Amino acid sequence: MLNNSTGMGIPIFFFTRGGGLAEDVKLNEDSYEVFVEGQYVGDKTLYAQNEDFHDIGDFLERQGFQNLEIELKGDHIIVHADNDDEKKQLRQALEVYLKNR
User: What are the tens digits of pLDDT across the range 49-79?
Assistant: First the structure.
């Protein structure tokens, strides 16, 4: 209430358009399921605002993997491998990465 010189209080209400606070504030973490060639590896949860699904590709490049194809479909991050050896190595690297996060 806002007081004025008459001693009467005037209530002031604030409203926001479009549903209010819930649309403007990130309430939960975003999470993606990570797959290598269709096999589930783990979940990638985005805890910080500057994280995104590209972190998976950046991590794999730092591990020495080159020319990877990574796609985002809904809440799935899909990593494609050229062959079975690469698929196995990608799974091992991502399992460690996703468990340590």
Answer: 888 889 999 999 999 999 899 999 999 999 9
Phi, psi of 77 (to 5 degrees): -105, 120
- 84, 29 Cβ separation under 8 angstroms: no
Q: Which residues contact 98 (CB under 8 A, 6 or more apart)?
A: 34, 41, 42, 43, 44
- The whole model's pTM is what? 0.69
**Number of compact structural domains in the chain:** 1
- Which residues constitute the domain of residue 56? 41-100
- The β-bridge partners of 9 are 3
57 within some domain: yes
CA distance linking residue 21 with residue 23, whole number of Å = 5
Strands (E) across 1-101 are located at 2-3, 9-10, 30-36, 39-46, 69-73, 76-80
Give which of 73, 82, 89, 85 is closest to 34, Cα–Cα: 73
